[in-house]
Design goal:
Elements lengths: L2 E11 L5 E11 L3 E5 L6 H8 L7 E6 L2 E2 L4 H7 E4 L11 H11 L6 H10 L15 H13 L5 E5 L7 H16 L3 E6 L2 H7 L2 E6 L2 E7 H8 L1 E8 L16 E2 L5 E7 L7 H10 L4 E8 L2 H11 L2
Parallel strand pairs: 3-8, 3-9, 6-7, 7-8
Antiparallel strand pairs: 1-2, 1-4, 4-5, 9-10, 11-13, 11-14, 12-13
Length: 308
């Protein structure tokens, strides 16, 4: 699949020497959902702002749909919709008029049928004549998405789209994103919610300190970097792990009733069989076994720790 966004050696430095972006290279395929993860100050919002033309890069190039964001600003901006973190809407305007106004800002002809279709997709149809000030926080976020989609962009940036909303509404937002993808929209979202990336993303990117640490297919990332843990419940507590089991790097729980063995899921052998035999030889009686797959959060935390 061809790239709709191409970022090459992108840098952003501020007076005083601080570098928010340090040579970022990134290709985003048409029609995919890319989740960009990173701690506060990692460069996520700066990257989005630079691609959208809000921030001027210090060096590097960005193309959107084949157009350069610096030399073909209008062409690239027409292709992009942006949903910012902050809710900044006209409180006394109606939902319909607010979304229609955004469409007009891009020079698009009036299209009430299209605006109504967007509002219906976002469960805002029955609120179209309501004033913004009368909406809940979750509904206001839906209005932000509607405004971003008003000019029919092919790329949608969602900067922390579910920040501050409840779990139920967050899942509704995931359904909205899935529907947009089905319509062929490319979606890039930044999020602090790891489960959000696990639930809806095709690929996951991790950024820290202004640098992209990796961008990889979500399932491949889990398979290649994920680990499993075997938690072993034992009959009698142990105060220390026997020396004969030192090769397994077991972790002991505080109460001494559980031992945890971490192993690589991609290895030819897990070592579990020999571990269980050695446990019995050491006189430890097992009462239960449980396995746990490393989550995307575990992987993310591990990557960030390596660069800090």
């Amino acid at each position: 699949m061809s790239s709709i966004i191409s970022i090459q050696n992108l840098r952003k430095a501020y007076p005083g020497g601080f570098e928010a972006l340090k040579g970022v290279n990134l290709e985003i395929a048409q029609g995919e959902i890319l989740a960009l993860l990173g701690p506060n100050g990692a460069g996520k919002t700066t990257l989005i702002s630079t691609v959208c033309g809000i921030t001027v890069p210090t060096a590097g190039t960005i193309t959107v749909g084949g157009f350069d964001t610096m030399t073909d600003y209008r062409a690239t901006r027409d292709l992009i919709g942006l949903v910012p973190q902050e809710i900044n809407l006209e409180p006394f305007e109606t939902v319909f008029n607010s979304v229609s106004f955004s469409r007009g800002l891009f020079g698009k002809p009036r299209n009430d049928a299209y605006i109504n279709r967007i509002l219906d997709q976002l469960s805002l149809g029955d609120k179209k004549d309501s004033k913004i000030m009368a909406l809940s926080g979750g509904m206001k976020r839906r209005v932000l998405i509607a405004k971003a989609l008003s000019h029919e962009p092919r790329v949608l940036f969602l900067d922390e789209p579910t920040a501050g909303v409840d779990v139920e509404l967050r899942k509704d937002m995931w359904d909205i994103v899935a529907g947009l993808k089905a319509d062929g929209v490319t979606i890039i979202l930044t999020t602090h919610y790891i489960e959000e990336a696990e639930a809806i993303a095709d690929r996951v990117g991790v950024i820290n300190g202004g640098e992209i640490l990796l961008v990889q297919d979500k399932s491949e990332l889990m398979a290649q970097m994920g680990q499993k843990q075997l938690q072993i419940a034992i009959k009698d507590p142990v105060t220390e792990i026997p020396d004969t089991l030192s090769a397994y790097a077991l972790a002991r729980s505080e109460d001494g009733m559980h031992l945890t063995y971490t192993y690589d899921t991609t290895g030819e052998r897990t070592g579990i069989t020999t571990l269980l035999n050695d446990l019995a030889a050491a006189g430890l009686v097992m009462t239960d076994l449980q396995t746990r797959q490393s989550s995307l959060e575990d992987i993310f935390v591990g990557l960030v720790k390596e660069t800090t």
